[in-house]
Amino acid sequence: MNRLVIIITGTSKGIGKELCNYYLSKGHIVHGCSRSDSGINHPEYQHYSLDVADEKAVTGMIRQVVNKNGRIDVLINNAGIASMNPVILTPLQTAVNIFNTNYFGTLLFMRETGKVMIRQKKGRIVNFSTVATPLRLEGESVYAASKAAVVSLTETAARELAPYSITVNAIGPTPTPTDLIKSVSKDKIDSLTRRQAILRLGTIDDITNVIDFFIDEKSDFITGQTIYLGGVNH
Amino acid sequence: MDKQLLNELIINCVKQVLEEVASGHTTNINSESKLYSSGGLLDSLSLVRLIADIEEEIYQKTNQTITLADEKAMSQRNSPFKSIISLSDYIEKLLTE
Asked: Which of A108, A109, A118, A156 has the highest number of chain B CBs within 10 A, making it the mutation to test binding with B?
């Protein structure tokens, strides 16, 4: 098996933590980060406590990963926050916080990891969008906008990094039972899943299936794409 | 870092990038050579590669992490990426900050 060096952001809980455990179980080396501890104890896991929008901290983490492993094969930009606010009731600071984590965090990790991958002339980057963007979900305007920005970033970065054999793609998960949606009412979740082609919540297996496809060596002709789960179309 | 060494580091990185990305044109590169400007040696693709290489080489030689494409660099009227001299001056400033 080809042992990969993988960076996953937002590994303290939810999908990020599950992804960590999944790729560790497959024998890969994982470097993760979050503001708090991850609680993951594994000899091949290293955790960095940082804010993904802190430029110096991100640069420092990437430096440490390269010092330790000499390369970065895969970046999974999972870290994200959400807030349910109608546009009229959205505090500016809430919008700033969401963009800091979801967009600027993704940009910083992609920029710094991209530099390493450019030198390697090889790499896979997977960003996280959401079905909330194409579904235009009421109450999630800022969250959806931040993820729309991630899709745009993905598409442009894919073109800029293609000459270096780096692919950049995104996944748009449906609601998945994690902390991110625990504060969302059941009615809201039900009304959302009704707008999907396949009427159920997503699972971690649905997500790893798409990421595995994007990071597969054979997927070197797949870039700039966003795959939405559950049959949601852009 | 000594200015002479810094110039040599940049010139070596430029040569390496040109060999790999632009397949040649490595002769007669000196501190006066133009980089990313009219009539310069680099296109946007090779400039990206050069920045990644120089940041890495600076770290290897000085243990200092610098970000070349920072706000100051991008907002300057005279781009630090214009020539080897301007880039060398800019990196020198970053290293002493």
From this structure: A118
